[in-house]
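not sure who needs this but someone in the group chat was asking about Phosphoinositide phospholipase C from Prunella fulvescens so here u go. i didnt clean anything up, its just raw.
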Amino acid sequence: MQQGTLMRKVKSKSWKKQRYFKLQEDCMTIWYQSKRTGKTESAFSISDVETVREGHQSEVLQSVAEEFPPERCFTIVFYGRRGNLDLVAGSAEEAQCWVQGLHQLIEPRPFPLTFALVSRTWIRDWFQKADKNKDGRMNFKEVQRLLKMMNVDMNEDHALRLFQDADKSESGTLEGEEFVLFYKALTQREEVLSLFQEYSEDGKKLTLLELVDFLREEQLEDEGTEELAMELIDKYEPSETARARHVLSADGFLMYLCSLEGSIFNPQHRGLWQDMSQPLCHYFISSSHNTYLIEDQIRGHSSIEGYIRALKRGCRCLEVDCWDGPNGEPMVYHGHTFTSKIPFREVVSTLGKTSWGNSSSPLPLMGMFPPSSHPQRYGQSTAVQSISVLPETVQDPRAQGSWRHWVVQGASLSPTPQELKHKILLKGKKIGRLEDTLDGPGDEAPDVSDDDNGAEAEEERRRAKVRGTQHGSALQKDKETLAQALSDCVIYCKNVPFRGFQEARSHSRPSEISSLSEAKARKLIRDEGNEFVRHNAWQLTRVYPSGMRTDSSNYSPQEMWNVGCQIVALNFQTAGTEMDLCDGLFSQNGCCGYVLKPPFMRDQETLFNPSDPSSREGPGPITLTIQVISGQQLPKVANSKEGAIIDPLVRVEIYGVPADQAHQETKYIENNGFNPRWDETLQFQLHVPELALIRFVVEDYDKTSRNDFVGQFTLAFANIKPGYRHIHLLSKDGTSIPPSSLFVHIRITE
């Protein structure tokens, strides 16, 4: 056996060990072993790899940048919370060989191939786990052990019958294709076969017309149905003969139902499907709080990895807490705590390399500088020098005449995500207003016509004078503490204090933004819900977690979205329901980080109040009916006892306006995580479906303690595709856990 490629595995500036790395013959597993001892250290599956980064795109590799050139360095990033693998190849050519090869193996393929590959990989993995003596064969005792591992509690006689049917060689063991036959028999989908036969006249195939009937009647496909049926046959039918005859076999039918086209998530909404030419304030924007932290808020580790992960997840609003460091160099960390620190210049460098990568959104990125965290003037100048390495991304409004037009028009217009592609907007303090930057002081007294009431005109002049005095005082204070060069970097996200909705309507600009704590936002929602919605129709609002959340826990973003808050900042490093909702909302639109708000939340005179669903203009409530049919190959609970089998139940949770908040669950199925059948119908009434998120949760029932989490999937109601659909489950970290899924039937009626 070849030793493989010799590379350095780097854990820190002082820990660099040589290891041999090799891709195994199955092209799905990589192992590495020590050069010194020859002992295999570890192995990982290609399916565990999320992406590969070239160059110094990790904190570890940046620390050894002077020792190793970027063309020899790359980072393997895994799904979930597994740590990165930082490697240095012996030459640039070797590095490129590995980087390109890994990209070829992990990049998306046509779904039928992916589905077949996942199934084949899954089968091989189980075979290797159960083959205790590693002789390439499996006896019946090993099969029984395998069933326990796979969450199956099967009658011994039935298991023996399946084993004997698959043992074509009559050797008393299963090997190779015999085990594949056993696995196929084990995974027979009776509920899918029954549905197939309902539309198949001979029970063996679906003709083109029979498939069209199924698509129209069950899947509610009403446009280009014949063309779609032909596409599905060509794409998912494994038999060349059947494809030539334009028919779909039971295997092809199952592959279609398990595909992207058979998913509950509307495939047309996976790409960018919404209008991106509305003002910025008309969008929900994926936003992170204290992005640099990857642990808790008090002693947690600060790392550029936090920025990289957030960007890869579709985040378009990042937070940079910038403080004075040694020799005037700004540092990023959570002020007045014991968190570690990272140089500001490294953060800027990372944003420059990753903000517009292949897997990142091209839409504008916002950098949040909390008002209390600016360094002193010398440090500010250094910060500006660091920012200046991004000349194409920091937008200067004086560069284009059209920006002057947006400003002059006041509250009626502001730039759009489409116009700001590949731009970084900085939020922070600013000396004066945007119009001051363009034209000089801008708070002139209003132009009062001769028809105005004299007393009213005089009162308005008096208020304008007071505003001018207040503005001048604030301007002087800003000049004393803020470097002009840093102020000039802040264009469309000037941070201003929130002093009430009436004050904001009278004096604020669309180019300004206010930040609210979660407690303050909740009080405004409770007391002035409609005013809050109107405010967010023309100006940006950011909401951030309470300072008491030192464990980096999250608040529910849904109540903030209900009043149209655009920038709802969450701790991305903390898994849970709140991040499931965030991922669920922003999984549409190509994960670009922007989601267009409903029309009634973009109208500055809207009457909508989330506490009163009847205030929403439009059709009445709709009914969502979900038949939970079955589950497939559900994972075991983490750290469960050997041989333990889950008792799964499904809970459907609705998040939206208060009147729509609801949850219902199925009964639990005892000792079957492999192919449980529920066949239960759950029904919900939605008053404001435009704001609703649907979360499907699978749990392991426990009558003596809290149920254990198994998997979940969350999506916006607007992205649901009705009909018979599969729901491909995600882990607690939001990563895929193939081939675990639910099979459901969805109906939506008014």
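also The longest helix spans residues 454-481. if thats useful
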